[in-house]
Known about the structure:
By secondary structure, the chain is α/β, with parallel strands linked by helices.
Amino acid sequence: AFNADAVPQAPEDPLFGLMAAYKRDTDPNKVDVGVGAYRDDNAKPWVLPVVKKADDLLRADPNLNHEYLPIAGLAEFTTASQKLILGADSPAIKDKRVTSLQTVSGTGAVHLGALFLSKFYKPSSKRTVYFSDPTWPNHFQIFSNVGLSYKTYPYFSKETRGLNFDGVIDTLQNADEGSIIVLHACAHNPTGVDPTQEQWKKIAEVIRAKKHFPFFDTAYQGFASGDLARDGWAIRYFIEQGFELCIAQSYAKNFGLYGERAGCFHFVTAPSSDAQSTVIRVASQLAILQRSEISNPPAYGARIASLILNDPTLFAEWERDLKTMSGRIIDMRKALRTKLEELGTPGTWNHITDQIGMFSFTGLTEEQVLKVREDSHVYMTKNGRISMAGLNKHNIDYFAKAVDKAVK
Ligand SMILES: Cc1[nH+]cc(COP(=O)(O)O)c(/C=N/[C@@H](CC(=O)O)C(=O)O)c1O
């Protein structure tokens, strides 16, 4: 007998709890700057025009069926995903040093990578995973669920509201050799603070010197700068430097395919004479894990993304849609900073425009966050992160005044 009555109550997921609380709120002025999901200027989810087009094409295909995909997913999707994040001319692709599996979005890719590492990465010795502090909260439970212990490296400087670069370097320098280092490829969540290219080079030096293993999580390619290649720069630099690494790639945000769960996991081996046979063995073990976890991935989102990634005209349209989203977010950053400065809201607000990607780390304390929620029906995560796409022409004045009231 299981005696399920012994099962303890788990805490509600903070983010999904926030989304539910927002939905329940009936106040007409309520503002949702919680979940990292793009909204248009009317606070509505935005189906990218290019995604609508791909959907029409897909539904018009007389051969469309609902058969199983291969365990590794749709080959034209994973191949195109490699090119997107590594660059079409990547040495890793040329040398056949990369293997990729389609996953249940970015979460599935982070999980598959964590599960694989828990079984095959230095299994006989102590392994520690390092996350930035702060990081995407789900990182902690995904890695602890597969039995890997973790620590954090300081990442955000409260004083400058920018990168605590020395904290990153010192912690990685003093970490046990061969630790797994989880890195946000661009548009860091929740801080919106990314290392400069020079700082990435120093981070790479320490990771090499300490024989750490880089684990990139990329969920916002095209959202940080609006430029896909630029947002892939850190990963491509590490590949150029000859690192062995893995990448969790999410298409939730940059294709707006949130609920369709489109993502990819890539494992890249270091250049060596037997790199290709290594990658084949790694692929075979990843397939075993994938089979037991999901058997094979969901078809619809990957088919949509694949149609767009593999068609130059649709790809160009996608890049335009990306610029629409990243452009509107940048407009909201400028508008919010201006409003807060005009209101004379205590503190400095340049970080709102210095930070990039979907989020701004406002610096509001937990009680100010709760106050702005109670008083003004504004929903942001407890760490003071706001999803900039939740702001628009109609609510930005109201939002700025709500923050001003909470901070004063
Ligand atoms: C860094 C990062 N990595 C992976 C994911 C997973 O996305 P998926 O939908 O599995 O492809 C998210 C989602 N972040 C937003 C939503 C969430 O928390 O799941 C967020 O931070 O709001 C990330 O912010």
